Amino acid sequence: MKAKNIIKCILFPTMLLTTLGLINNYVFKKPTITENSVTNYVREDENTLDGTFLGSSTVWHGIIPTQIWKETGLTSRIIAKSPFHPGLDLDALELIFKKQKDSIRFVYIDLVSYFTLNDENIHDFLVDYYFSFPEGNEERDTLVYKYPALEGYQKGNHNLDDTLFEEHNDFRRKDFWQQFTEEDRNFTKGFYSQNFGHPCKKRKVPDYKPISLEDKNVDGFKYLTEVLSFADKHPNTKFIFARTARQLCDKEETEVDTFVFEWIKNYIQNERPKEIKNARKDYLVEDFALKANEIGIDEKTDLRDANHLNVKGAIKNTKYLSKYLKKNIDVTNIKHSKKVEDDFEECYKKTENYLQYIQKHNIGH
């Protein structure tokens, strides 16, 4: 009899806890939130951002939106993935003008991915974008129609995957880096820091003729024309088509991409307005890689590798960009709510503390 009572005493609490656990899981459990540059952009309040930076890893390693806020008063965020399919710029632009249509003053688009990626490429950005919408959402159906390969993807948390920590020491994994990663692209507004660096030998740009983007990558040219057609419809927003700053140490970037970009600049500013009625003539097209010396980028200390800036380089590049934006965008009548100003001020302080911390303690990532 005692044995039966003991079994009852054990079974009853166990069953009770199991039942409560199931209730918690299915009734009270909050949905898992995936952190990435798309979902965090979606969470920004409507009409609170003055600008957006689009592109791949050269953008998220090279531009610090919170620093731009401090130096110009412009609010902005990065939407980036590495590598970044050029066709996704159109999806991102539709998102931007849906969320920020009454506030967006500038859009910065890094064009490097247009040189190489084609229609066969589908990358993490698109998967993140797809899963940022709830099941049954019309946006999902539209994306699957445009990119049928999405049907084969399964939901994954790309930024918090365990493989992220393979090259990090225990301190960064267990403490500070873990904490930062969970808020990554949130308080930094999309900036993704790299504190280590590899010196490289700067190459001399040869005397070549421009290389047509249409010859280099026909899909890239197709998407560029679509993005320009979209931009034509938004004359009140300044569009900046760019190659993000770094010293040119890579042979392909120096001897090929430089001249593809030169062709793009001439096409956008001179040839296209002749071919297309009502084409805008005020687009800014800037190869900031050719201005690396003016920006102050040191190939011995400011590069993560031949293609990306590290923290020191990003700070210098952002300072230059802030001056560039103030010169080309009217910042005299910017107005934000106290909520927005408080948010960006807090994010600025957090980002500054983080950058100072990793540099002081020589933390690589």
> Total strand count, please?
5
Radius of gyration: 24 Å
Q: What's the overall geometry? A: globular
Q: Note the beta-strand portion.
A: 5-15%
pLDDT < 50 runs, ≥5 residues: 19-34, 156-185
> So how many helices?
15
- SSE succession: HHEHHEHEHHHHHHEHEHHH
The main sheet comes to:
5 strands, parallel
Helical percentage: 40-55%
Give the averaged pLDDT, no decimals: 80
The structure class reads: alpha/beta
Q: Trace the largest sheet across and list its strands.
A: 2-1-3-4-5
Distance between the termini: 63 Å
Task: Please tell me about this protein's structure.
The termini are far apart. The protein is 49% helix and 7% strand. It is an alpha/beta fold and 365 residues long. The chain contains 15 helices and five strands. The chain has helices at 2-28, 37-43, 57-62, 65-72, 88-99, 124-131, 138-146, 170-174, 176-182, 213-216, 218-232, 251-275, 292-295, 311-328, 338-360, and strands spanning 51-55, 76-80, 106-110, 238-243, 284-287.
